[in-house]
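Chain A, query sequence.
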Amino acid sequence: MFCKMVSGEIPVTRLYDDADCMAFADIHPQAPVHVLVIPKEHLQSTAHAEASHGPLLGKLMAAAAVVAKGQGLSGGYRLVVNTGDDGGQTVGHLHVHVLGGRHMGWPPG
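Chain A, predicted structure.
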């Protein structure tokens, strides 16, 4: 599904877009601000990442920081990356959740 968003086959409002990454609002938000940042290159999950993916993973983190700033999350935010079924990953394309707009203490909720 995310690859179709990257290609434009599935329309989505892009909150961030560069040569390597894009971001859009999560359709099932878990916080007042819940944005997904994805690589445009298909990568199943962090479990599938290799050393050669290091620059791309760094770009995802940098893009997440830009998204957080653009969403006004100056008081802080949480970044979450779910990996595999047991890690709660529901879409087979690496993505970073940017969550904020409320206190994100532990435990969540």
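The beta strands are 16-17, 21-25, 33-39, 78-80, 96-100. The mean pLDDT is 93.
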